[in-house]
């Protein structure tokens, strides 16, 4: 296969070919990225986006907590944002400005130390601000849109835009901004609070999360979006999975967590195909049990291994 790097623009950051990115994902599975790119700074990234061949797919990888990389790998460029240029968190009065690569938990802790209230829910979200913007991430009754003022993002032409929160069209686990836009930072407006009390609240959330979720396992976080409130088993995806008898269900090295059955885990020898097949099996069984079609919250990307495509629940059920 011809070198893709030869077709890409010159950058100040770094390219790596056929790079193993499975260790960068929480599931620890999947094939290589054809090219792995770490931009030096936002201007370097903007130049890359503006000049790359239009047909070359790109994917911005955060900490890989909400990502299932398929066994055939990613056929284009996987971009990893990092360093101070992308991960900086600053306080300006009652506003918090966070780079796209800043960990959600870091943003929560920084705001709490500064006595700023409203972003504490982020301590329970295992990802980065870029991913939080892309899916309106939330937990413990809070979500990204509640305190978001604006975001900075790169268009497919490599132009940096300042966008208001309304322009992002955020709703439950959804952002209306097209997928080929790349987030660079976010600005939040908070409320004043007691720093000590806020930090105590964060500690409580962390303790609760560790007690109720399999965070020490190789997992991707919550697997399925919650269904509507009027669904037969309510608005919690895990209740539907449990009611369909899927708690502890295994396929190959993949298992539905016994601790929290809206989590899939890699028990040690799973392939991405095992995990995705398990997820689609759960979706099928839930639909057969309650008529509710769960939707993936975890983002799946890349190619299937040769001869190993995964049938979706819609294909199995004829929907």
Notes on the structure:
This protein is an alpha+beta fold and 319 residues long. The chain folds into 3 domains: 9-80, Uridine Diphospho-n-acetylenolpyruvylglucosamine Reductase, domain 2; 87-210, Uridine Diphospho-n-acetylenolpyruvylglucosamine Reductase, domain 3 (2-Layer Sandwich), CATH 3.30.465.10; 218-317, UDP-N-acetylenolpyruvoylglucosamine reductase, C-terminal domain (Uridine Diphospho-n-acetylenolpyruvylglucosamine Reductase, domain 1, Alpha-Beta Complex). The chain has 8 helices and 19 strands. Helix 3 runs antiparallel to helix 5 (195-212). The radius of gyration is 20 Å and the shape is globular. The two termini are 38 Å apart. The mean pLDDT is 94.
Topology, please?
Layout: E1 14-19, E2 33-38, H1 42-51, E3 58-61, E4 67-69, E5 74-80, H2 84-87, E6 89-92, E7 95-99, H3 104-113, E8 116-117, H4 129-135, E9 138-139, E10 142-143, E11 148-154, E12 160-164, E13 182-189, E14 191-192, H5 195-212, E15 218-219, H6 237-243, E16 250-251, E17 254-256, E18 264-266, H7 272-290, E19 299-301, H8 313-317
Helix pairs in contact: 3-5
